[in-house]
Amino acid sequence: STGSFQPVLRTLARPIQREQLRDTLQQWITTCKEDICSGISSLLVYVTSLKALAAIRDAIWDLLSTDSISLHWGSVCQCLLERPLDVWEDFLQHLFLQRLQAITKDEMDTISDSSTQLLTSALRDLESPAPQAAAPPKGHGGHFESDVASFLWSEAPGDLLSDSAWVSVAQRDPQHHSGLAMKTLALTPCVQSFCTALDAKLRTRLDDLQHYLPVQEPGSSYPSPALQGTRPAKGLAASAFDRFKDAADVEQSLRDSCLACVQQILSHIRSELSSGEPRPDLGTVLFVARLCQSMGDLCTNLRRCVLGREGSSEALGKAKAPAQVGPAQARWVGLRRDLGACSMDAYRIWSSALSQALVDHFATALNADTPGAILKTATSWEELEIQEEAESGSSVTSKIRLPVQPSWFVQALLFQLCLEVNRVGGHALPRPTLHELLKSCLDQVLHHYHSITQQTQDKDHGFPMTQTRALQLLFDLRYLCSTLSPRPEGGQGGGSSQDPRIQQVCDWLEGFIDPFDLDVFTAPLSAPLNRLSQRTSVLLGFLTDTEKQFVQRNSAASSQEQYNILPLASSQIRFGLLPLSMSNTRHTKAGRQAVDPATPTNSAIDHSFCPGNLFRQLAHHEEEPAAPSLFKLSWLSGMAK
Asked: Does residue 497 carry a pLDDT above 60?
């Protein structure tokens, strides 16, 4: 029947030409490729995760790696097409890569939109309609942005981690930060919650992406995917294609989408900063500044998204030399630079608004020309005895009075400035921001001092400039310049970069002082000025440089000095602003105990393991005559980290 039917050739059989067969097969393959691309593209739209996309790819790999297909596939293609035909690379790989890029972009756009909405809601919550209103309730964390000091000195259950007593800092996961560590960085709960939310979303993207990438070695920056056990374990020789050949393109897609997401967040932040430029809310400005400053550190998965395998290689063994910077590392450095620039812009808005508000009050008191207002701001003067030579050659003793303290409005300006810096967590402020704040305050102060010279020349009424007032203003100006002038980063002293207005105002004030008195007052006026700078260097804290705080003074000068200047340690100790004793009495006592005759050690060994021995040691240390120290219990120093 039909099963045994064989056609009968009426003419002689002719062999098909090789070129004709190849061209016909190529046309058929091209048609199949177009149909497959259109059909599979329409089906891949329903795949919404990289895990599902990787499962489909692995199923194709399993199918093409079977012996029935892969055994003679290469020889048949070479015989008919005279070239190898890779079904994955020629038909499917670019479709899967396009779908992966689309999924990654959509997910990152979703993260960007949700982060922008979260940021907008956080900024709206931080905005206060009445800056002078009463403090918000304690349960609301928004007031911490403009008053970080209340956050730093408040206790919370998470200040110390539960395993702080037995897990060292080196063994701890860098992603786990204690509350004290966050307080040392002045990172408020609002900043932590935003970074935690963003980091969790990026971690979800990374976990999904790992199913499409090769399994990383232990210790790398990428976690092991959940699908690792279900992947085929066949060798490379039996595989139909390399599933992870496009791993670099996959990471590049994630990197581009992640950078675009962060840039969109930064664009929204800049628009928020520019919208509130006339009268900015300092709480929102500080929140934005801290957020941009800490986003690269708190969002650890952001770094993994950008660096990819370059970050894992650096974490493993620092394989690359410091001079060799890969493209991913360069883009990460650029992102950190953009975040830092946005943070500095926000800090600049805060410092400008703060200096303007404080100097306005200073200018009101400085420009007061009534006798009552001038007497109200007067402070302490000192009476000194000087030896003068009379015309007859004999020595004459006379008394002069010089200011030893700045005016009240000068002290109020510096103290309020220091208070505001400490209120926002001055220990975590960037050093350029502090220098810029001091420079802005000094510039505005000099502007108001210079305006006095013009006002006095223009008007004929008001209280005249007397020698006493000129001496006080001269002392105030020199003290302000000594305190607010930041020390250059590279060298000692700042005389070459001194503002010329300082000398102009000083010359103008010295014009109201009798030349003979000015010659007599010059040397005695410098001593109380230097003494005052030393006495207030610790009190003003962040307004003075570290070099100005730790001043070496000889014993002769300190013995003759009648004022009680706070003794400071000469070394950079852990708590630099505390007057901790650096004596070695504890070491000398330990040496004496070593020289003393040995006591029975059995009882000492037994008592060392008794319950409550730690408290006996504490009581024993409290009875020591040595100066108190915060470093006796060294094993407690790592608990706060």
From this structure: yes
Return the structure tokens found at 282.
Answer: 């300092």
Tokens found for residue 437:
């704040």
Element (H, E) at 398: strand 395-403
| Closest of 395, 400, 405, 394 to residue 517, by C-alpha | 400
> In this predicted model, what pLDDT tens digit does every residue of 57-112 receive, in sequence order?
999 988 888 877 777 788 888 888 888 888 888 889 999 999 999 999 999 999 99
Task: Tell me the C-alpha distance between 230 and 57, whole Å.
Answer: 13
Would you say residue 495 has pLDDT above 80?
Answer: no
555 CB neighbour count, 10 Å cutoff: 7
C-beta separation of 81 from 26 below 8 A: yes
Determine the Cα–Cα distance for residues 261 and 119; give it in Å rounded to an integer. 13
Please answer whether residues 66 and 240 qualify as being in contact, where contact means their C-beta atoms are separated by less than 8 angstroms: no
- Please check whether residue 296 is in contact with residue 335, taking contact to mean a CB–CB distance below 8 angstroms: yes
What is the rounded radius of gyration, in angstroms, for the C-alpha atoms of the chain? Answer: 38
414 Cβ neighbours under 8 A, 6+ residues apart:
480, 483, 536, 540, 543
CA distance 445 to 450: 9
Average pLDDT over residues 158-172: 72
Cα(212)–Cα(217) distance, integer angstroms: 15
Confidence of residue 624 (pLDDT cuts 50, 70, 90): very low
> CA 585 → CA 303, 598, 624, distances in Å?
48, 21, 10
* The dihedral sign for the CA sequence 436, 437, 442, 448: positive
Q: Which residues of 361-373 are buried (b: 16+ CB within 10 A; e: fewer)?
A: ebbebbebbeeee
Domain ranges for the chain, please list them.
16-94, 98-128+140-232+239-347, 367-488+498-560
**604 — phi, psi (to 5°)?**
-65, -40
3-state SS of 342-393?
HHHHHHHHHHHHHHHHHHHHHHHHHCCCCHHHHHHCCCCEEEEEEEEECCCC
Q: Give the separation between CA 420 and CA 64, rounded to whole angstroms.
A: 69
DSSP state of 90: I
